[in-house]
Specification:
Length: 326
């Protein structure tokens, strides 16, 4: 498990096509609030015939944000670029020039044994050429992790490849819609992706392999208006958290405050976490009922949970209603 709040701070990651020319002003004017991260996408959201143009739009947007940041103070989210291949990491790192200062790193789509070595090599090169850390967030969404006969081999092989640069892997991400697409599934606004057993079993295996050492972010929720969109999102984030995910990919600003509210911790959890981490070393017992007399706290079995709660509280705060998700 990561020992820094940085890895828990990505939160709602707002996806935006890299060729959206209004994005710079939206960031400068704080249109989306003050607690989110931004993904500028050059992959699935861009027509294959317009990638070069989208790259230039992206560079102009980042330069505009960088120049504005020199003149005025505004909330600057962690900004990531979702690339199509390793060569884009090299080319964009060079082309960004001074604007590279406002880029947090790169998102790696369809991370798989076929491309992992190249992406990792390019991330290492980009960091060698940079005066600041550039992080990566690989997305597990390729067909390589479908086959049960090889899934564990693939997941552990990719983990072994990432181990040398573990500190540069800000999050592991899961591509819920891409995995659903492989099966021909799509959930409605009153259904959680965790109810789709073939997909949720993949999530479970990813958390099993990576969850003790990496922060893993939850899948995208594609509803942002209409019937039950908000209630459905809250319900799915509840499932996300229970299954080991922190944060969520979002595709509309409406979703940002909902994700942030759901990532807040309850007063009771925070109180118990502090008690567990401040256990009296002179006490003969390492187990005791909590302050409300409602559940048992045990130092040896709850310490990692307590550390996680403290990090989430530091980033997202505490719920006003104890035990509620909103």
């Amino acid at each position: 498990m990561k020992n820094s709040t940085l890895y828990y701070s990505v939160g709602p990651l707002l996806y935006c096509p890299a060729n959206k020319t209004t994005i710079a002003q939206s960031i400068i004017n704080e249109k989306f609030g003050r607690q989110f991260s931004l993904a500028l996408c050059l992959e699935d959201t861009i027509n294959d015939n317009f990638v070069a143009e989208a790259e230039q739009d992206l560079l102009r947007s980042l330069e505009e944000i960088y120049q504005a940041r020199e003149r005025k103070n505004f909330y600057l989210p962690k900004i990531f670029i979702r690339v199509r291949n390793g060569e884009q990491i090299t080319g964009l790192t060079m082309a960004l020039k001074e604007a590279a200062d406002i880029v947090a790193g790169f998102i790696i789509p369809k991370f798989s044994p076929a491309n992992a070595c190249d992406y990792i090599h390019k991330i290492i090169e980009a960091n060698e050429a940079s005066h600041k850390k550039l992080y990566m967030m690989p997305i597990y969404e390729s067909a390589d992790i479908i086959d049960l006969r090889t899934r564990y081999d693939v997941l552990y092989s990719l983990k072994d490849m990432l181990n040398p640069i573990e500190e540069l892997v800000l999050n592991i991400r899961v591509g819920g819609n891409d995995l659903c697409n492989l099966f021909g599934f799509r959930r409605h606004s009153d259904e959680s992706i965790h109810e789709i057993k073939p997909v949720s079993s993949i999530f479970s295996d990813i958390v099993t392999v990576y969850g003790t050492e990496y922060v893993i972010s939850g899948p995208v929720w594609e509803y942002y208006a209409g019937r039950n969109w908000r209630e459905g999102l809250i319900s799915e984030i509840h499932d996300d958290i229970l299954c080991g995910f922190v944060g969520k990919t979002v595709i509309h600003p409406n979703q940002i405050p909902v994700v942030n509210a759901c990532l807040q911790v309850s007063e009771g959890d925070l109180r118990d976490a502090k008690n567990i981490l401040n256990w009296d070393d002179n006490s003969a017992a390492l187990v005791a009922g909590n302050q409300n007399g409602q559940r048992m706290n045990e130092y040896k079995t709850h310490v990692n949970w307590a550390l996680r709660i403290l990090r989430l509280a530091e980033v997202y705060g505490v719920k006003e209603i104890d035990g509620a998700y909103l």
